[in-house]
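Hi P.,

Sorry for the delay on this. The queue was packed all week, but I finally got your sequence through. Input first:
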Amino acid sequence: MFTRRRQAGDGYFGCLLWGAALIIVALICYKAIPVKIATAELYDFMVDQAKFAGGASTDVLKRSIVQKARELEIPVDDKNLTIEKIGDKIRMKTKFMIPLEFPGYTYEWNFDWEIERPIYII
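Then the structure:
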């Protein structure tokens, strides 16, 4: 009688492992990409505020940054945001954490930004 031998790649175990890996990568991307986009938008907003902060007080700048963070659902408030004007430069510091929740695990994504720019007066 004819017997068939197994050939390399004939099993389904490798396919299942690659499928599971693809699902895990897709889940990580689904959770992390929106957070990265929102934080990059807030960082760009802070840099723009720093560049053109000539006539504005630090309280006005702080309120506008906190307002933008609320719109983007980022946990930045008055307590973890400091703004200092030193001569013709401005320094902004903020530190916050965004939790990314996965099944069975919560990753704490920490952000620690310090922006120091010259102030341009228009």
